[in-house]
Structure formats: C-alpha cells, structure tokens
Amino acid sequence: MQTLTAYEEISEQLVNKEKSHFMIHSSTLTSTRDRIKRVTGYKQKEEVTTYLGCPLFAGRPRIIYFSDLINKVLHQITGWQVKILSYGGKAVLIKHVLQSLPIHLLSAVTPPVTVLKQIQGLITDFFWGWRNEKKKYHWSSWKNLSFPVEEGGIGVRNLTDVCRAFQYKQWWVFRSFKLSREISESKILPEV
Questions:
Q1: Where are the domains of the chain?
Q2: pTM, 2 dp
Q3: Cα–Cα dist 150/60, whole Å
Q4: Which domain of life does the protein's organism represent (predicted)?
Q5: Which end of the chain, N or C, is less packed with Cβ atoms under 10 Å?
C-alpha cells in the first residue's frame, strides 16, 4: 500500500478502489484473505480476469480460462467456411491469420496441452474441409504438414513447438538477466 501511495503522489493519478480487486489461491487461509481486504480495502475476485488478452489466474491453468482464444479462432473459421477456397488459400489464411491469433498469449502464458490440441484440431478441420456436415478425409497428418515447404510440408507452425520456443525464450531471458546482473555486481565489488 505504501508503494501505491507513493505512485499516487508521484504520478498524481489515483487508484480507483471501487474497480480494484485482488486474487489469491483458493487454499489461502481465511485470516490472510480478511487481512488483505482490511489493509487494502479491495474486494476479492474469484473468477478469472483478462489483462491485455491474457487470463490472470491463481493456481494452475485450466481449459476454461482459454475459451476466449478458442472462440476467436472458431469465429474466424466460421466466417471463411462459407467461401470456396483452395487448399493454397486456406494455407495462407492459416499461416497469416489463425496462427498469429494466439502468439501474444503463448508468449506470456503456457496454456494446457488440451487447448493447443483443440485449436490445432479446428485449424486442421478447416484446412481439409467439410462435406454434408462431416469432416473430409485427412490425406496427411498435421505433423507432416507442419514441415517447411522444402521438406514436403505446407509451412504451417505446430502450436506446441511455438509454445515450447516461447518457454525456452523466457528461460533464456531469465538466465541471461541473472548472469549479466551477477557479472555487473562482481565488477562493482572490490576483490578481496
């Protein structure tokens, strides 16, 4: 609260306590929750909220937290299914629109594998198409289609691989920052 008070004084912006809330894990003691309410004057928020397109939650990620992302992909596909598109046109839409929708979310949060499989399934069904309310036969696995064009695929990205790459990037940034901080601190301190 001292930090928020200092922020209000420096920036001359006030925190709206009516709109502010806090989130804690469900297994937190009642006495701790009551103390936070008393000290901050904020309300506790039970359900998940979204900030900059990413769900904020306490605990492990659940499938329901990412339903907005799945609905966004489904909404895009629904608009395109009525159009007659070639496989090349579908591939372009998948590469440049559908696979760019979750990029921001994947760079910040790691969704459950089920969510990634669901999105991948929607994209796969869109690519191969539907006939008389039934899925058309999939002539190749999505794993094979995910290869670069030079290697026999269509050049789409596998969302699991993208998610793993973002995890490695976060790890690398964390380790590099920690290492550079240790090096700069060792240069500041005189050797004994």
A1: 2-46, 63-170
A2: 0.66
A3: 39
A4: Eukaryota
A5: C
